Amino acid sequence: MGIDVLFKIAGVGILISVFHTALKQAGKEDMAHLCTLAGFALVLLWVVQLLGRLFTTVQDVFKLF
Amino acid sequence: MKILGSLLIVVAGTAMGFSVAARYAERPRQIRQLISCLSALKSHINYVAIPLPEALSQCTSGIVGPVADFFRTMSLLLLTNGWLTPQAAMDQALIESKQLVLNQPEREILAVFGANLGGMDREEQHKSLELVQEQLARIQYEAEKLCEQNVKMYRYLGICSGLAIVIILV
């Protein structure tokens, strides 16, 4: 599960960079920035879930309530 | 099964990108053909002085594709329905030829051209055709610039969006 998500995030990163260069070459810099932002939000969505799980695990391990 | 589905998505994204890019590449070509047809039509009106339906069908000689079809449809409409004005025939032909990838500015110029066609004497028609050609040449220049920029971008975007959808779904 863990390594899978890492690869997914890496793939999205590569694709977003290609999107960014393609749009920038076509002179649509605003769209390029918007695209980067969308990719960032997408990855953040995944990462936030994982972080939430990490925090609950930490809570469980140290018996913090 | 998963691999097959993702392959299909990537192929569909690529096809979408390439079709949009082809549309952008096709537009300057069609405008160029339109200009050459109009210059042939101009000489047919000014120096050969044949009736409009014949002139319209003859000015497409040497040109194939949607633009030639458009002029031929217009000529046929004028021949079969004698009560149609050239403008109405042009509107009808524009609706009927679905293959034309012309945008709003070209269509407006064509509408002006159709309104002046066959309504005045030779000199005035010559002038209006020259004006239309000039405007179309400017639009062609703009369309070529747009084409250069956008064709590559849409191809990349098609492939990449297919891949992105696959990654998100997997």
TrEMBL record, chain A:
<dbReference type="Pfam" id="PF06686">
    <property type="entry name" value="SpoIIIAC"/>
</dbReference>
<protein>
    <recommendedName>
        <fullName>Stage III sporulation protein AC/AD protein family protein</fullName>
    </recommendedName>
</protein>
<keyword id="KW-0472">Membrane</keyword>
<feature type="transmembrane region" description="Helical">
    <location>
        <begin position="6"/>
        <end position="23"/>
    </location>
</feature>
<feature type="transmembrane region" description="Helical">
    <location>
        <begin position="35"/>
        <end position="55"/>
    </location>
</feature>
<keyword id="KW-1133">Transmembrane helix</keyword>
<keyword id="KW-0812">Transmembrane</keyword>
<dbReference type="InterPro" id="IPR025664">
    <property type="entry name" value="Spore_III_AC/AD"/>
</dbReference>
<dbReference type="InterPro" id="IPR009570">
    <property type="entry name" value="Spore_III_AC"/>
</dbReference>
